[in-house]
Amino acid sequence: MDINTPFQAWLRPDGRKGIRNVICVVYLVECAHHVARQIVNKCDDSEVHLIGFPGCYPNDYAYKMMEALCTHPNVGGAVLVSLGCESFNREALKRHIEASGRPVETYVIQNEGGTLETIRKGVEAVRRIQAIAKQTPRGDMNVSELIVGTICGGSDGTSGITANPAVGRAFDTLGAAGAACIFEETGELVGCEKIMASRAITPELGAELEASVLKAEKYYTIMGFGSFAPGNAEGGLTTQEEKSMGAYSKSGSAPICGIIKPGDVPPSGGLYLLDVVPDGEPRFGFPNISDNAEIVEMIACGAHLTLFTTGRGSVVGSAISPVIKVCANPETYRKLSGDMDIDAGRIMEGRATLDEVGAEITDRVLRVAVGEPSLSEQMGHQEFILTYKAFDPVGPACLPLRTAR
Fold first, then answer.
1. What is the pTM of this model?
2. Whole-angstrom Cα distance, residue 189 to residue 216?
């Protein structure tokens, strides 16, 4: 596909543009999870997704995330499902969604007559909201309006040689066309902070990039965890430094324009680091409980789709935004080809170059953006995790392009 050719997108009333038209059924506490799940199951529609927050007492992070997710450009409307006595401010969330111009209805299980009656009403609500969402006008969207995230998971000794640098090539191409590209996992960038800072567009941003990695290092040290899992070693990775350099290569070679935190939307095109390690004293346990938690955080930053690199193999997708999986290891690809959108392991066997696979990834991004389903979408993967974290707002040094406006 031609990267300069506009494609059709859903034009949201708040001015944002989506590549999917998803209806979210949202549980506001774990006690409402089953009811919300049954609503989604009974709708039996691939465009109806389940998201939610399990805690009874949401903090600022959880609330900000839910606001960002329910008004994501790929979301056409929402049905909120509350038990009734949890602390989540359902009325405030409903007002936020309404202010974005998206249709929304709320159902409180304690007031609706229990499980079966709430499910019945919820299914009817989804159908009403979906009918409204289908009337959303379509219009041109350019690559410069895309937000693309990347994450690696199940890494092995091939990840930093094939899939990760190939995604870096794609990021360079997409970023040069004006797209906003997000990489993350500061806990897996330990040792890369100096070279990463040298790519910052201002010295002040460079200092913030180094500080973000230092924060991750301290957090992991205090928690007694690291990002180096037993499976990484079994897959041939030998040191944290080797894993870090491999993860870092996903960022490509473009200048780094800023640092964002979960729920922050990049203010312009270009390359951004998403800082996913909580601020303040370590709380709430391990900072990144799974790859899907980080995918959700990128989606909350507006990511229209995510590039997921894997060496050992991962089959996940996500609610709201498509996931494109790039397989680093040729042996893994032969075992899991039905789950892998891109075979970057060809580079290991001399059947393709980094540039060729990078171009293939870029083309796949464009095809998914115009509506072609990724393999995880085809198989119905809609994983979603949202837990407790805490973040401070980014300072002006983190977003020099926004500050300059």
1. 0.94
2. 9
